Amino acid sequence: MKRVFLYFLLLFSIERIRSQITDEDYSSLPPVFKADNFDNCMLLREKALYCTISYQLQAVDEENPSKKWNNIKELIKNPRNYRHDILRHGICVPTTCPNATTYLKEISQFEAEMTKCYNNKFAKDGLNGGITYMHCQTNRNLPLDEYDISMITFLTIYLTLVLIATIFEGLARYKPKIEYEEITGTSFGKIMTCFSIPYNFYRLKTIKENEEIKSLKVIQGIRFLNMILVILCHNIMLTLLGPISNTKFVETLTDNFENIFFASGGYVVQTFFLISSWLLTYNVLKMFENEKKIELKVLFWMFINRYIRLTPTLAVVIGLHASFMRHASRGPFWDHIVGEDHRHCRNNGWTNLLYVNNYVNSEDMCMQQTWYLAADTQLFILGLLILALIKKWKDNIKMILATSLIIGVAIPGILSFLNTSDILVRAYPEVIYNSYLQDRNWHLLFSSGFSNIGAYVIGIIFGYLYYTYRDISFPITKSHMALWYSLTFGLGLSILAISYPMYGYSYVYSRVTSALYWSFGKNIFTLAVAIFIFGITQKIGWLCRSICCWNPFVVLGRLTYSAYLIHVFVLRIRGSSIRNPIYIDRYLFFAGTIGDATMTYIWAFILCLLFEMPISALQKLWIPQKPKKENELLKKSTFPKIVFNKEDV
User: Fold this and answer.
1) DSSP secondary structure string, 230-293?
2) Torsion angle, alpha carbons of 473, 475, 479, 482, to 10
3) For residue 70, what are the domain limits?
4) How far apart are CA 65 and CA 59, in angstroms?
5) Percentage of the chain surpassing pLDDT 90?
6) 3-class DSSP state for residue 78?
7) In terms of C-beta distances under 8 Å and separation of at least 24 residues, what long-range contacts does 142-146 make, across chains too?
8) What is the average per-residue pLDDT within 193-219?
9) How much is the pLDDT for 470?
10) For residue 7, pLDDT beyond 50
11) Which residue from 177, 302, 436, 584 has the highest number of Cβ atoms inside 10 Å of its Cβ?
12) Are 344 and 365 in contact (CB under 8 A)?
């Protein structure tokens, strides 16, 4: 038996050695990414023509292929490599392919001329091919169309309203307090105050100091820190969406253990599901603690309340993606980085507003990051139903929560088993280059609402525990703290680290192991974060608690929704301005994240003050919040008693 094992080990080692290509051979291959000088090309005035192409290579002679073609075939056998048979090049046509002259006359003829130009270029290497994608730019700016004009008109009218409201409320501040209250206390005054920038800035920076708020400050701090991790992950993804000069680094990224934490970056979104359901549970149980059940019409209005709070700001950002983003910058790879998302938002932005974009036309998703909002909205409905069951059958709370958790954990495993899914959504170059949108696993087991039920139910469970024991201080011993650190950092990091061998050459997964990992991986990570938050509410954590509860982080945590919506807009604009394939390494990823995070929060601050907070203020004005007596509210208002904190996203 031992000899058989050694034989197969030797055979595997020989195969690896045979399949490896020397660095010298690798460097001699046609570059996957290449770009002529874009700005110099644009200086050619009426002759300026810059085309970005995807050129599919093949052998001139299949029976007697060249060494380079054999090396290319060897490389593309491994899914962790770029498709070296597909060249993504930016070409200044007048200088690189001067014989291609029919662009404005006949597109098909122009494509044939460009193909001939590239075939001649690679003929000496025994290679030729065909163009599978082409996008060309001249030195003329893109004209404004009806979408752009509509967005400009809307923003002009809206910002004028904000300016008038700011002046109205600002001038009232110079009056005595009684006069200020009289001016802003009228129906007109209240509405105008909702749009005042100073008023909303005051709301944003004010931190209440009651015991309930102090206990849950950690959630805002964690939201901010988690948002930084999201920006880091999306910074890496958007960088790899563009041209890379050191492609070998990207292809070997998952060979290094420390990079696995980047590759598993999608797990950080589970924290948002956890926080959302935790706050929902706490608020609903506190709101209806004297009620025996929650009526369906109340649940309906709670959903409407959430929809009104989230959607206007989302619609504005969709408008920015569909209009202004395409005018923000230009570059060789502009169409791939910006153009696709711009077109998706024009065609499918309506699915985002209905929060079904993770199911409907999901392969052409507008603002890809908003899959989370869609999934969270779907799970919000499920969470309300679970809480209604808890209120109706108080004696069966454990059974309801346990059943919900088992179902939530089982669903991704069952789907993985039935669909023979890969054990991971793999962070491979070609998968990232296509934004995961062509990856079946990503749609089925990552972005769908039903694949994240487990994380949401864990949040409901811990929200219930926090509500139940909120007035109880547990005696904390050193052993408790050691257990807390082990379960949070140990458990959380371990479930990420376990994916490292799954990227190995020799790892072979089965349908069962894939199902188990999809069932428990994300949910164990969520459990670790839940224990972390619960421990900090019990004043465990020392430095961790101080960081998460630091007031500046708490205020920045309030910008999380706006930051989540706008950060990809910032990243895509930066990426679209790239002129040449760029060199990347881990240090540059972190350095880029600092700049991207700074720009994101500047934009988020503006978006929050201009749109998110005015909508929130109007909601509180039109939909009564936190009434003193529920019976009086139900008599005076057509809306049920609804309480939502801004944190519950």
Assistant:
1) HHHHHHHHHHHTS-BS-HHHHHTGGGSGGGHHHHTGGGGHHHHHHHHHHHHHHHHHHHTTT-S-
2) 20
3) 21-137
4) 6
5) 53
6) coil
7) 142/326, 142/327
8) 84
9) 82
10) no
11) 302
12) yes
The per-residue pLDDT for range 92-149, each reduced to its tens digit, is 999 999 888 776 667 788 888 899 999 999 988 899 999 999 999 988 888 888 999 9
Phi, psi of 43 (to 5 degrees): -75, -5
At residue 530, φ and ψ (nearest 5 deg) are -65, -45
Q: 366: alpha, beta or left, given left = phi > 0 and alpha = psi -120 to 50?
A: beta
The CA distances from residue 311 to 355, 448, 572, in Å, are 9, 20, 22
Report helix, strand or coil for 419: coil
Q: Which residues contact 624 (CB under 8 A, 6 or more apart)?
A: 633, 636, 637, 639, 641
C-alpha to C-alpha distances, 483 to 492, 498, 532, 540, 542, nearest whole angstrom: 13, 21, 11, 11, 14
Answer yes or no: is pLDDT of 581 > 90: yes
pLDDT at 1 over 80: no
The residues that bridge with 34 in the sheet, in sequence order, are 89
Mention every residue, 6+ apart, whose C-beta is less than 8 A from residue 475. Answer: none
Written as six digits, the tokens of 582 are: 């760029």
| b/e map 362-377, b = 16+ CB within 10 Å | bebbbbbbbbbbbbbb
Please state whether the predicted TM-score (pTM) of the whole model is above 0.85: yes
Joined together, the tokens standing for residue 14 give: 């020989």
Where is 486: in which H helix or E strand? none
Distance, CA of 111 to CA of 134 (rounded, Å): 8
pLDDT band at 479 (very low <50, low <70, confident <90, very high): confident
- Measured CA to CA, the distance from residue 463 to residue 388 in angstroms comes to 15
Is residue 465 a part of any domain in this protein? yes
Q: Which helix (H) or strand (E) holds 134?
A: strand 127-137
Q: Which two three-digit tokens encode residue 302?
A: 């709670």
Q: Is residue 89 part of a domain?
A: yes
Residue 539 pLDDT grade (very low, low, confident, very high; cuts 50, 70, 90):
confident
Q: Per this entry, what is the length of the chain?
A: 649
DSSP 3-state percent helix, strand, coil across the chain (nearest 5): 70, 5, 25
**Angle at 534 (CA atoms; ends 532, 535), nearest 5 degrees:** 65
Does residue 219 share a domain with residue 186?
no
- Cα separation, 417 vs 397, in Å, equals 30
pLDDT on residue 637: 37
pLDDT band, residue 626 (cuts 50/70/90):
very low
Residue 570 lies inside a defined structural domain of this protein: yes
Query: Which pLDDT does position 619 carry in this prediction?
Result: 86
Are 174 and 295 within one domain? no
Distance between CA 64 and CA 382 in Å, rounded?
A: 61
Question: What is the number of domains present in the chain?
Answer: 3
Cβ 55 vs Cβ 131: under 8 Å: yes
pLDDT at 579 over 70: yes
Q: Rounded CA gap, 548 and 532, in Å?
A: 11
Contact 80, 240 (CB under 8 A): no
Residue 518, pLDDT score: 95
Which amino acid belongs to residue 615?
Answer: I
In angstroms, the Cα distances linking 299 to 111, 306, 373, 616 are 57, 11, 19, 19
Q: How many CA atoms lie within 13 A of 2 on its CB side?
A: 0
What is the residue whose two structure tokens read 């070609």? 430
Query: Are both 52 and 196 inside the same structural domain?
Result: no
Residue finishing a domain among 137, 164, 195:
137
Question: For the residues 346-374, what does the mean pLDDT come to?
Answer: 95
pLDDT at 554 over 50: yes
